[in-house]
Amino acid sequence: MKFFYTLLFLTIPLWSLSHYHVVDEAITYQNKPYRAIRSFEKEKILHHLIVNEMTLETHIIQQRIQKIDSNPATPYQKLLDKYTQPPYLLQNYGVVSIESDKIYITTDLCPSSQKGYEREFYQKLIKHYPNPVEITLFISGKWIDKHPQAFQELKKWEDQKRLSITWGNHTHTHPYHPKAPLANNFLLSKGVDIEKELLGVEKKLIEQGVTPSIFFRFPGLVQNEKAIKTLKRLGLIAVGSNAWLAKGEKIQKGSIILLHGNKNEPQGIEKANILFQSKLYTIGSLLDIVQ
Ligand SMILES: [Zn+2]
């Protein structure tokens, strides 16, 4: 019985993707400046993942792209430059808050052996806040593989406009070694192909009909110069946090709040449930970073 149950909820790709490559082309699309950051074949037809240089919204398009001269002063390029500057901190590099009165909820979906996910937390957000509720999911490929039903439910809430999900990248396999020092752990572990980790989960999301954003969270919030430069080459922006609730950090105006949606950190979810029920906060989208 269990075998059939599992079969029912397998994440079967909607499409087969091939030739998934990193590109960097300034283009116009619907008379607006965009950047093509990936090219791939879906059902043997050439597609691109493109970023709006002004708003950071991403789309997948099928038509031939129209190249233009790149502009170093677009909000997207300025952010890419700003968030790949030294000093290359070992932990919590990148955007940790946004200049605004809102708060920004991010939930990490690292691979986990836990059954299920923090379903009630997402349901409470939907119940207490105007829909669709803005949320960023930093998702890993391995979590999707192990939790197909949860993944489909989150997608369903997005389709029903209960959640407005920014699909953030949290690597494909999320390497982690409990005893290794940080400098040799997570993405910095021996033998890890950083580019492969970053592209693997994107490809999986697109195969599932989801458009990846340009936001990325380093596993363990751990990185080095090489990893940050890879991120820049791939056109992604690192998002850290100044309010990791399970670690006792407090929410401030503009905080990017870090929670785990995979049941690995229930103490953070408990705190969030109490805080969010008070409805003291307005929840924003990470795209506010360009406002
Ligand atoms: Zn993680």
What does this structure look like?
With 291 residues, the chain is of the alpha/beta class. The longest helix is centred in the C-terminal third of the chain and has 14 residues, at 194-207. The N and C termini lie far apart (52 Å). The strands form 3 sheets. Strands 4-3-2-1-5 form a 5-stranded antiparallel beta sheet. Strands 8-7-6-12-11 form a 5-stranded parallel beta sheet. The protein is built from 8 helices and 12 strands. The radius of gyration is 19 Å and the shape is globular. The site of zinc ion has 5 residues, from loops.
Features:
single chain; 291 residues; TIM Barrel; 5-stranded antiparallel beta sheet; 5-stranded parallel beta sheet; 12 strands; 27% helix; disordered N terminus; binds zinc ion
The separation of the N and C termini measures 52 Å
Q: Give me the strand/helix succession.
A: HEEEEEHEHEHHEHEHEEEH
Q: What is the overall number of helices?
A: 8
Q: What characteristic shape results from the CA principal axes? A: globular
The rounded Rg comes to 19 Å
CATH superfamily of the largest domain: Glycoside hydrolase/deacetylase
Share of helix, binned: 25-40%
Q: Which fold does the CATH topology of the largest domain refer to?
A: TIM Barrel
Largest sheet: 5 strands, antiparallel
Main structural class:
alpha/beta
CATH architecture descriptor of the largest domain: Alpha-Beta Barrel
